[in-house]
């Protein structure tokens, strides 16, 4: 009797073990037939059963199932997982550490390429949807998977940096851009990106080092020239900035950013006429250019203020000159109003614009509009 019971127990154990391998085979067959929900349903129990959980085949099949879920266009299969490529990647990683991995190694490497491409495509989708932070993470995952199989994906790493920069994560952006640089890639856009992010991080020394090296390699590159100009402006090296900007203007007469930068430079140097001309040109080229429109309005306001200051320094006997200068100051304020109103229209929440309009309206005796601007300031 005891022998009979033992035989039954052994038979049951074999049956249970066989049922798990059968489930794995069933999962594989469902996968081949494109029934991903059934494939997933059958593979999951195999991940925890002692007979199948430590076999490379189990995790290889799981990776394949999730890979196909990630690639599927069917809503019912897309709903099976929020991060199918990540799970597929982790499954393949697990498979490579287990018994029987060599049998699947080549297929796993090929599928890793597909996963990386999947991450990359989703990154592009998020980028197009302006979800830059998520896009950066997806590009990073794409690069990581490629690195796992010995490939440095320059495009994925650079795009990760670009998206990080667009999401204002300058630290992450700099890390990704440096990876591309340290990999030996020397192109103008790499230098421009490194300069811009270094500058945003407040590291003008590093930014200048990249600019110097970049211009040595690409002396006629427009983007690096402009990036270097931004460094000069950040360091208040206005004369050097203007030299670059004159070169830039000769290369591109249709770029509003160049004329805006020229305006800023002359504004800093106190050259009202040239600053006015440059801002007007920038606005002509780009009628909705908020920065140029606001700066021109501010230029007129500041000119009015300095003109009044000069008038107030005149001796009392020069009443005629005083009145002329006062009228000139008022005319500058009149010029400022339409530009500041346009700036307010473009960005209704900008406090500097609202505050400027409030002061001008009050000075002009327009109590109703001054009160309106005051209420807007209080609401922010």
**N→C terminal distance:** 88 Å
CATH superfamily of the domain at 259-380: Tetratricopeptide repeat domain
Poorly predicted runs: 1-18
Count of DSSP-assigned helices? 19
| Rounded Rg | 33 Å
Strand content: under 5%
What percentage of residues falls in helices of 4 or more residues? over 70%
Query: How many beta-strand runs?
Result: 0
The succession of helices and strands, N to C, reads HHHHHHHHHHHHHHHHHHH
CATH class of the domain at 259-380: Mainly Alpha
| Average predicted local confidence, pLDDT | 90
CATH topology-level name of the domain at 259-380: Serine Threonine Protein Phosphatase 5, Tetratricopeptide repeat
Oligomeric description of these chains: single chain
Judged by helices, strands and strand pairing, the structural class is mainly alpha
Shape: elongated
What profile does the largest beta sheet have?
none
Architecture of the domain at 259-380, CATH level 2? Alpha Horseshoe
Written overview of the protein:
By secondary structure, the chain is mainly α. Among the domains are: 18-103, Alpha Horseshoe (Serine Threonine Protein Phosphatase 5, Tetratricopeptide repeat); 259-380, Serine Threonine Protein Phosphatase 5, Tetratricopeptide repeat (Alpha Horseshoe). It is 78% helix and 0% strand. It contains 19 helices and no strands. The protein has helices at residues 2-32, 36-43, 56-71, 75-78, 84-95, 105-128, 132-148, 154-166, 170-182, 188-200, 204-217, 222-234, 238-251, 256-269, 272-285, 290-312, 319-346, 351-364, 367-379. α11 runs antiparallel to α12, α15 (272-285) packs antiparallel against α16 and α18 packs antiparallel against α19. The longest helix has 31 residues, at 2-32.
């Amino acid at each position: 009797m005891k022998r009979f019971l033992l035989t039954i127990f052994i038979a049951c154990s074999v049956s249970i073990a066989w049922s798990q391998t059968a489930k794995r085979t069933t999962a594989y067959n469902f996968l081949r037939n494109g029934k991903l929900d059934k494939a997933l349903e059958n593979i999951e129990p195999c991940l925890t059963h002692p007979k199948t959980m430590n076999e490379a085949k189990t995790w290889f099949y799981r990776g394949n199932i999730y890979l196909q879920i990630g690639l599927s266009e069917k809503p019912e299969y897309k709903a099976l997982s929020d991060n199918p490529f990540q799970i597929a990647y982790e499954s393949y990683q697990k498979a490579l550490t287990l018994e029987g991995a060599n049998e699947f190694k080549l297929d796993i490497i090929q599928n890793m390429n597909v996963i990386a491409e999947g991450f990359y495509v989703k990154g592009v989708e998020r980028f197009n949807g302006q979800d830059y932070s998520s896009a950066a993470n997806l590009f990073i995952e794409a690069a990581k998977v490629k690195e796992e199989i010995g490939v440095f994906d320059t495009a994925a790493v650079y795009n990760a940096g670009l998206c990080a920069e667009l999401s204002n994560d300058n630290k992450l952006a700099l890390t990704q851009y440096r990876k591309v640089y340290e990999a030996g890639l020397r192109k103008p856009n790499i230098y421009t990106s490194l300069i811009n992010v270094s500058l945003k991080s407040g590291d003008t020394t590093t930014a200048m080092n990249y600019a110097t090296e970049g211009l040595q390699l690409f002396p006629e590159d427009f983007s690096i020239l402009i990036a270097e100009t931004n460094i000069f402006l950040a360091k208040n090296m206005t004369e050097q900035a203007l030299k670059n900007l004159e070169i830039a203007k000769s290369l591109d007469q249709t770029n509003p950013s160049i004329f805006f930068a020229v305006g800023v430079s002359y504004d800093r140097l106190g050259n009202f006429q040239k600053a006015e001309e440059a801002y007007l040109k920038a606005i002509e080229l780009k009628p909705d250019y908020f920065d140029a429109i606001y700066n021109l309005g501010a230029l007129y306001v500041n000119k009015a203020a300095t003109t009044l200051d000069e008038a107030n320094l005149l001796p009392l006997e020069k009443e005629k000159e005083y009145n002329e200068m006062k009228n000139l100051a008022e005319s500058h304020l009149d010029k400022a109003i339409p530009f500041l109103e346009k700036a307010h229209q473009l960005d209704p929440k900008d406090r500097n614009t609202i505050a400027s309009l409030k002061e001008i309206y009050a000075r002009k005796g327009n109590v109703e509009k001054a009160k309106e601007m005051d209420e807007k300031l209080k609401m922010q």
